[in-house]
């Protein structure tokens, strides 16, 4: 009986030791890719529509910057979520200036107790860009505010019959 137990234990030990040369994990001295994109990477790799810049110092969290399909019922949308070391007011002020420089008119701007802010804008082509910022957030680090940046194309017009 003892011999029968000895065989599975030996097999387990052999499997656990394994072949160190067959390891697929990288060596400790090999450079590892960064987990989060640097500011310059965020601006280069994640371009917002219509030449609107990603705020300097921003950390790109997620998004879909390719416009969704535009229909006669709704315009195409592209979105990005960023985190910024700073306040909601900083984010709103940056995008208010950047949008106006690119021909957008501010249609609505609201700040609520420094914790939440919204900015809505539109240009002469009917393209809209909205910013919704809040202090903190589920993906925010200490001292960061997050913002959802939403670009919206105009709806398609129905053909005249």
In short:
The chain is α+β, with helices and mostly antiparallel strands and 161 residues long. It has helices at 2-17, 39-45, 88-101, and strands at residues 59-64, 77-85, 105-112, 116-122, 128-135, 144-152. The protein has a six-stranded antiparallel β-sheet with strand order 1-2-6-5-4-3, covered by helices on one side.
Question: Your description of this structure?
Answer:
With 161 residues, the chain is α+β, with helices and mostly antiparallel strands. It has a single domain, classed as Double Stranded RNA Binding Domain, CATH 3.30.160. It contains three helices and six strands. It has helices at residues 2-17, 39-45, 88-101, and strands at 59-64, 77-85, 105-112, 116-122, 128-135, 144-152. A six-stranded antiparallel sheet has the order 1-2-6-5-4-3, covered by helices on one side.
Keywords:
161 residues; alpha+beta; Double Stranded RNA Binding Domain; six-stranded antiparallel β-sheet; 3 helices; 23% helix; disordered N terminus
Through-space gap between termini: 90 Å
Q: Order of strands across the widest beta sheet?
A: 1-2-6-5-4-3
Spatial shape: globular
Average predicted confidence as pLDDT: 78
Gross CATH architecture? 2-Layer Sandwich
């Amino acid at each position: 009986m003892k011999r029968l137990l000895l065989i599975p234990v030996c097999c387990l030990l052999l499997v656990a030791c394994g072949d160190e040369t067959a390891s697929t994990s990288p060596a400790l001295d090999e450079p590892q890719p960064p987990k989060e994109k640097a500011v310059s990477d965020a601006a280069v790799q994640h371009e917002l529509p219509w030449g609107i810049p990603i705020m300097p110092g921003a950390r790109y969290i997620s998004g879909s910057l390719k416009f969704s399909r535009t229909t006669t019922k709704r315009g195409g949308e592209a979105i990005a979520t960023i985190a910024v070391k700073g306040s909601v007011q900083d984010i709103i002020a940056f995008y208010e200036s950047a949008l106006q420089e690119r021909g957008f008119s501010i249609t609505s701007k609201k700040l609520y107790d420094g914790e939440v802010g919204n900015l809505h804008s539109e240009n002469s082509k009917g393209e809209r860009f909205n910013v919704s910022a809040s202090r903190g957030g589920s993906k925010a680090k200490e001292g960061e505010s997050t913002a959802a940046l939403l670009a919206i194309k105009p709806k398609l017009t129905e053909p005249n019959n």
